[in-house]
Amino acid sequence: xxxxxxxxxxxxxxxxxxxxxxxxxxxxxxxxxxxxxxxxxxxxxxxxxxxxxxxxxxxxxxxxxxxxxxxxxxxxxxxxxxxxxxxxxxxxxxxxxxxxxxxxxxxxxxxxxxxxxxxxxxxxxxxxxxxxxxxxxxxxxxxxxxxxxxxxxxxxxxxxxxxxxxxxxxxxxxxxxxxxxxxxxxxxxxxxxxxxxxxxxxxxxxxxxxxxxxxxxxxxxxxxxxxxxxxxxxxxxxxxxxxxxxxxxxxxxxxxxxxxxxxxxxxxxxxxxxxxxxxxxxxxxxxxxxxxxxxxxxxxxxxxxxxxxxxxxxxxxxxxxxxxxxxxxxxxxxxxxxxxxxxxxxxxxxxxxxxxxxxx
Length: 360
Ligand SMILES: N[C@@H](CCC(=O)N[C@@H](CS)C(=O)NCC(=O)O)C(=O)O
Ligand SMILES: [Fe+2]
Fold this sequence. Notes:
Layout: E1 7-13, E2 18-24, E3 30-34, H1 41-50, E4 54-59, H2 71-78, E5 81-85, E6 95-97, E7 102-105, E8 108-114, E9 123-127, E10 132-136, E11 139-140, E12 143-144, H3 154-165, E13 173-176, E14 186-187, H4 188-194, H5 204-211, H6 222-229, E15 251-252, E16 258-260, H7 262-268, E17 273-276, H8 280-283, E18 294-295, H9 298-304, E19 314-317, H10 323-333, E20 339-342, H11 345-351
Helix pairs in contact: 3-5
The protein binds glutathione (GSH) and fe (ii) ion.
């Protein structure tokens, strides 16, 4: 039954190679985000809104050393609450989790399992039916978190993984906080057999020897990330927050496009340049066009961009809002900063009965 399935998305931050996971109950629409990244908050908000979800909690698996968590920023924007392991030492959370506590979202929950070793406060979040485990940096795909800073201990990690992760069903999928090669998912059975550091055949002494000789450089963002994460991602003053363009009430889509609704454009048409990127026969065809719109077919836009005024915001228009979304991408590339797509194009404009020139 579809409604018994959990809504699940795996999201990636290419800068820190971090995975963020969205889990939601499709019936109550209540959701969790595991390990959100500060710089990706806009993307995460767009996804939560497009899927019609209510973000209840952000959960961090640990105090990350390589990126700033999005927990605080998402709480500011979506009023989600912050949870992290009590042993993490982080301040400013709404809830600090002890081992075996549950975090509920609608009819579903995850259970927190203590998996220290990479840091003292590392938690693995296990979905209620034990089909998925979010291991943070305890178990990575064919790897594991390093143990050379932040209270790291190879012996502790070895025991955590054996006791708390390898005790899960073999088929339980493992979703880590990072992967540096593009691998996305593993399973308990697979890691027990093939993890070069932590396969069942590897002894504790072998593991400790391996971990003492990783020879990794410290994460580039470590000096900024750790203090910010000890405050659940509350930034220092110097850090720019989610900047919203100010010239109009724009919406950011998960597809990465800034959009405007027809009502705002109708009221502010004189303050912007309306660029219609359809072909001439459509511009003069049955749908008509918006008064004052300039016709620049999409195929000619890059070459003709110089005709546009860089100081005046641009709203792109087409039949459905698809070609004009691509037009915003081309215009941004050409150096225009204030650019937005008319959401739903001429079809929505007409459906909402705004006036047109020409047309039927
Ligand atoms: N080059 C990366 C370093 C990433 C790193 O050290 N990652 C930690 C997780 S916070 C780790 O445990 N890596 C294990 C590994 O690469 O084997 C950066 O600058 O962010
Ligand atoms: Fe980490």
